[in-house]
From TrEMBL:
Sequence positions that bind substrate: 59-63, 187, 310
Top-level EC class as recorded in UniProt: oxidoreductase
UniProt cofactor(s): FAD
Family annotation (PANTHER family): FAD/NAD(P)-BINDING OXIDOREDUCTASE FAMILY PROTEIN, FAD_NAD(P)-BINDING OXIDOREDUCTASE FAMILY PROTEIN
Reaction(s) the record says it catalyses: 1,2-dihydro-beta-NAD + O2 + H(+) = H2O2 + NAD(+); 1,6-dihydro-beta-NAD + O2 + H(+) = H2O2 + NAD(+); 1,6-dihydro-beta-NADP + O2 + H(+) = H2O2 + NADP(+); 1,2-dihydro-beta-NADP + O2 + H(+) = H2O2 + NADP(+)
Species in which this protein is naturally found: Phytopseudomonas seleniipraecipitans
UniProt-recorded name of the protein: Renalase
This protein's record includes keyword Nucleotide-binding: yes
Amino acid sequence: MTSTAPIAIIGTGIAGLSAAEALHAAGYSVQLFDKSRGSGGRMASKRSDAGALDLGAQYFTARDRRFAATVQQWQARGWVEEWTPSLYQFANGTLNPSADEQIRWVGKPRMSAITRAMLGALPVKFSCRIAEVFRGEQHWHLLDAEGESHGPFSHVIVATPAPQASALLAAAPKLAGTVASVSMDPTWAVALAFEKPLDTPLEGCFVQDDVLDWTARNRSKPGRDTTLDTWVLHASSSWSRQHLDLSKEQVIEHLHGAFAEMIGCAVPAPAFSLAHRWLYARPSAAHQLGALADADLGLYACGDWCLSGRVEGAWLSGQEAARKLIAHNQ
């Protein structure tokens, strides 16, 4: 079953950690790598002067029975809680209550609490950008951006956004080609904090206009800091793509203005603001890839881009990568 060499997993978002959990439970040794300073990927939350802010995934739903069962376990452990916002939709210049009654979940006290808990005590190297995956005589090795080599590894699972994954899968041209065909959309995210609460019942809003796609009252989520009235705004994919290289100050100005026009109440200058650019926020289209594998080589790829682009899709893809690896080694 297990090789003396561990399995390398590149990426500590939901997909990578889902695969790591499944492999660890099956008795395999894993070693995780991430270019960031902490786990989460697009589930990451940013600590700021206005408290912790969910700049990436805003919430998630659970439709697949396997994922729903896992979310129930997360809830029992205190990692997640249901979020029941006063939800609106904005279209054609009109703001109306939304009839959407899906059950929405959020990490508590921030979205990154989920991946931090999933990671647990698993071995991980943060601030380590893997630049190349190459094969030695018997095992895989990883080369990071600083020129340091890591290994040996029996298998490698690449759990990064598709544009980053394709380069790391060069040793498996068919896998790399499939991944390279997956396009992903960017998203500019802006956080605004106000000293006095805005005079609106709105706590979440699906927006259909040129600039905005989504806005949420961050402090309406369970366990969040309520000192300031914090809001997270996501720009639309098309606007983000057109303004990819705009300065953060200009992005804040544009999104603040669009937010003020939409919300229907006085919006003063924020006491605090920040912008974050997600280059690969979501896949441009849904796929049915599950997880990609060259089992004979021992290379695998997983991520939300393999399925729906949703948190659930990332978790399911990680599970599928682990299942394929385990099945091939039985």
